[in-house]
Design a protein that fits this description.
single chain, about 240 residues, alpha/beta, Alpha/beta knot, 6-stranded parallel sheet
């Protein structure tokens, strides 16, 4: 049911949580599990929590070294966070995120749901490559969710939305969506261009790029639109260099 969605566990600490996350994937119909740089991965400890039913998801999980490698081929990535404010703006609830994910998938995309380490969560650097952020509301006296609980909550919302609207492409696809790698290349080029015309402040340009990133996160950017914007950036940079 959620074939075009993947759960990405970034540097998980406990193999038991990985096993429980695999079971959550099975329960909600998400066959894709990616594990990034696990700190103490032990298949024998993870398998009992996955149970025999989710054993195949756990054993077929991709294990990679970096988040960038994990997100290759995906057209959008949504990170989870318990912290808000500062750099972390435009945070969605799980239900809202499920609608956004559904729109992405119906547009022909592939979406990654990224979960950080149990003790620290995702850093600002890691959330910066995400198309958006999701926060699961909790009681103030217990704001910390177990990793597999968070996975289950988000996948449940995605499954519920899928059952209501069906994650199927509507009509022929004219252009494929851009991948996360392509979006990062565009942001890098945009930042360079906006600095060249003094639109961005030179002190901490990464911070001043955040509104631009959030704007594009609301758009299911297609490859032809990516080519258009990259061409605009090249032309602006050529003009600035010529007329220094």
């Amino acid at each position: 049911m959620l074939d075009d969605i993947a759960v990405v566990l970034f540097r998980p600490k406990y193999p038991e949580n990985i096993g429980s996350a695999a079971r959550a994937c099975l329960n909600m119909g998400c066959p894709n599990l990616i594990i990034v740089d696990p700190q103490n991965f032990d298949l024998d400890k993870a398998l009992p929590l996955a149970t025999v039913h989710a054993k195949h998801i756990l054993e077929s999980a991709r294990v990679v070294d970096t988040l960038a490698e994990a997100l290759q081929g995906f057209t959008a990535a949504y990170g989870t966070t318990a912290r808000t404010g500062g750099w972390r703006k435009g945070i969605m609830s799980p239900a809202t995120a499920a609608e956004v994910v559904g729109d992405r998938v119906r547009g022909g995309g592939r979406v990654a749901l990224v979960f950080g380490p149990e003790d620290k969560g995702l850093t600002n650097d890691e959330t910066s490559v995400c198309s958006g952020l999701i926060c699961i509301p909790t009681n103030r006296e217990g704001t910390s969710l177990n990793l597999s609980q968070a996975v289950l909550v988000l996948l449940y919302e995605c499954l519920k939305a899928a059952l209501e609207t069906r994650f199927t492409p509507s009509g022929p696809l004219q252009e494929r969506p851009t991948t996360v790698d392509e979006q990062e290349a565009l942001f890098s080029n945009l930042q360079k261009t906006l600095l060249a015309i003094s639109f961005l402040k030179e002190d901490n340009p990464d911070y001043w790029m955040l509104p631009v990133r959030r704007f594009f996160a609301r758009i299911n950017l297609k490859r032809n639109e990516f080519n258009l914007l990259m061409g605009v950036c090249r032309q602006i940079q050529w003009f600035v260099d010529k007329h220094k």
